[in-house]
Amino acid sequence: MELNPAHIVSMTDCSPATLRNIIKHLEVSTDFEHLVYREAELDAIWSITGFSLRGAPASAERSYLELLHESAHQAHDLVADRRPRDAAALLRRLL
């Protein structure tokens, strides 16, 4: 299947497969419209991780969720600065 940055990545979880899909889309996104979609996807990651962190006990999983939550916020800001490849690199470090 050919990657199309004009399509929105379906966000149902924050699994490694979903993150890899977003990273691939970030790496090929060039148009303003693409960047808006990537920001929305990163917002979804931020929201999903935020919900998951509520009441989650201290654990390695919680630490990862906190890191992903903060990284999604930072990646969003990079995309807003028209730096989607830097955002992709930031997320790639989490895999």
Tag the structure with descriptive keywords.
95 residues, mainly alpha
List the SSEs and their pairings.
Elements: H1 16-28, H2 32-53, H3 60-80, H4 84-92
The helix/strand order is: HHHH
Structural class: mainly alpha
Number of domains: 1
Mean pLDDT: 95
Low-confidence stretches: none
Please report which band the strand proportion falls in: under 5%, 5-15%, 15-25%, 25-35%, 35-45% or over 45%: under 5%
Morphology: elongated
Radius of gyration from the CA trace? Answer: 13 Å
Description:
- By secondary structure, this protein is mostly helical.
- The chain has helices at residues 16-28, 32-53, 60-80, 84-92.
- It has one domain (16-92).
- Helix 1 runs antiparallel to helix 4 and helix 2 (32-53) packs antiparallel against helix 3 (60-80).
- The longest helix is centred in the middle third of the chain and has 22 residues, at 32-53.
- It is elongated, with a radius of gyration of 13 Å.
